[in-house]
Amino acid sequence: MDDTAQGAVRAVAARNLTKVYGAGDTAVRALNDVTLEFFRGQFSAIMGPSGSGKSTLMHCLAGLDSVTSGHVYIGDLDITTLDDRALTRLRRESIGFVFQSFNLVPTLTALENITLPLDIARRKPDQAWLDSLIDAIGLRDRLRHKPTELSGGQQQRVACARALAAKPAVVFADEPTGNLDSRSATEVLGLLRWFVKELGQTIVMVTHDPAAASYADRVVFLRDGQVVGELPAPTQQAILDQLAVLETPVVSR
Q1: Where are the domains of the chain?
Q2: pTM
Q3: Phi and psi for 137 in degrees, rounded to 5?
């Protein structure tokens, strides 16, 4: 897959991606022939009404769900051709995840949670990289604390550092501020923005929150399993305006 004319490098791409759940009369087409690209060093948000397919798209892009037809690429690798073992290795080595519910291991300290992906892969951390992540999340004095001893915002910052510990090709964030108050959400979004700007990280975030999406470089909108538009350099008001259009019922004639 070649670079774009602007010199941006594709980090993740979907080609004619379709996902159908069920069969026959009960079949649900969650994604319908989606072709889309996300670029290296870019913060992208995926938005759309409930049931639009945004979470399904993220799960397929991240190799967490199989596709019915079409292709998904991480860099130049077509992940739809991989077996389960290769997919597991890919997710461990090349993909980071940030979840709404943090998903920290309660028996591990903050530092142990951050290095967990590396420990599982039996890889030694790049200490300089790890130090930069710890400094970025601002929790060096709380590294020995367990998740229950941290606030929700602090837990999510640990989860963000964990997602980047292995220097992944892309980080997928699923409603990362959904369980946070506004102040903690602002801190986490600022952190994700910093990862992109200062570390060149690629982040793809699913969110329903226009304020969260306004931190992104670009917002992609879905409706009924299809890409129906996008906004570069989005503002919160422009996102609200676009969502209002998408949530207006389609009247058939």
Answers
A1: 10-246
A2: 0.92
A3: -80, -10
The dotted CATH code for 10-246 is 3.40.50.300
Tens of pLDDT, residue by residue over 142-163, are 999 999 999 999 999 999 999 9
Cross-strand pairs, 34: 17
List residues bridging with 129 in a β-sheet. none
Place of tokens 């004619």: 16
**Cα torsion for 133, 139, 145, 147, to the nearest 10°?**
-70
Contact yes or no for 217/42 (Cβ under 8 A): yes
**Cβ–Cβ under 8 Å, residues 207 and 47:** yes
Beta bridge partners of residue 219, listed in sequence order: 45, 231
Element (H, E) at 19: strand 10-21
Question: What would the two tokens of residue 42 be?
Answer: 């870019």
In terms of Cα–Cα distance, which of 2, 9, 5, 1 is closest to 169? 9
Tell how far CA 44 is from the center of its chain. 8
C-alpha 239 chain-centroid distance: 19
